[in-house]
Design a protein that fits this description.
Low-confidence stretches: none
Number of domains: 1
CATH architecture: 3-Layer(aba) Sandwich
Structural class: alpha/beta
Number of strands: 8
Largest sheet: 6 strands, parallel
Number of helices: 8
CATH superfamily: NAD(P)-binding Rossmann-like Domain
CATH class: Alpha Beta
CATH topology: Rossmann fold
Length: 257
């Protein structure tokens, strides 16, 4: 049609907070947002990592602020919100990408380990939503980071899998309750190379070979490859998308053994 127009997939000029944005996939998303023209506050519990990531964000032209965050502490999250509002002039996008994992089995995992993982991975998402949603204007977007572990049976990850399953259910519940003012979606990454797992997924290892064989695209993902999904869900191009979980896994989850 001659009068056809479309909304571009971009977060340019958006003001974003990325919780857990100083390492792994969270950092890739934070830096990707900045490279696309967003102002970004990336935070985690480590002051050194916050400073290092802030330097990278500024190198990409983003306005930012340096503030640490503990998602188990509501006052800490409120401090991040207030700092980001002052530094950026408001908050349009929030990405919840904080991480914690335990590899104890179903029968061996202790109460302390279970509570540690779920307090960060699941309860952390709830606290992030409760802290930031009231401060976001109409049209705001929350993007939670889930995992294939929410859908697939993975040995020795009971707390992580349960928490990520809860993140997806909470995403759908939040999307209904916060609509129409705020959209809430999630990204479910598959196997990605990050500095934290580079040795585990190195080429030639048995684990890497099994993943490559099962993945239709024949390889694991590079962490920059999750950025586009996060930008899409955060952007106005996804203005009619809420309560969705976007899987980014090279086809792994739906492939046959």
């Amino acid at each position: 049609m001659d009068d056809y127009t479309h909304t571009p997939v971009t977060v340019a000029d958006e003001r974003a907070v990325v919780i857990g944005g100083t390492s792994g996939l969270g950092q890739a998303i934070a830096l990707g947002f900045a490279a696309d023209g967003a102002d970004v506050v990336a935070t985690s519990r480590s002051e050194d990592k916050v400073d290092a990531t802030a330097d990278l964000l500024e190198d990409r032209g983003a306005n930012t602020a340096r503030v640490t965050c503990d998602v188990t502490d509501r006052e800490s999250l409120e401090n991040v919100r207030e700092t980001a509002e002052e530094a950026l002039g408001g908050i349009d996008v929030v990405v919840a990408s904080q991480g914690a994992i335990s590899r104890d089995t179903v029968l061996e995992i202790s109460d302390d380990e279970w509570d540690f993982v779920t307090a960060i991975q699941l309860d952390g998402v709830r606290r992030v939503t409760q802290t930031f949603a009231p401060a976001m204007d109409e049209g705001g977007s929350i993007v939670n980071i889930s995992s294939l572990a929410a859908r697939l049976s993975m040995a020795n990850l009971p707390a992580y899998s349960a928490a990520k399953g809860g993140v997806e259910a909470f995403t759908r519940a939040s999307a209904k309750e916060l609509a129409p003012e705020i959209r809430v979606n999630a990204v479910a990454p598959g196997f990605f190379i990050t500095p934290q797992n580079a040795d585990t997924y190195a080429e030639g290892t048995k684990k890497r070979d099994r993943i490559d064989e099962r993945t239709p695209l024949g390889r694991v993902g590079e962490r920059d490859e999750v950025v586009g999904a996060a930008i899409y869900l955060a952007s106005d191009a996804a203005s009619f998308v809420t309560g969705e979980v976007l899987t980014v896994d090279g086809g792994f989850a739906d492939s046959a053994f």
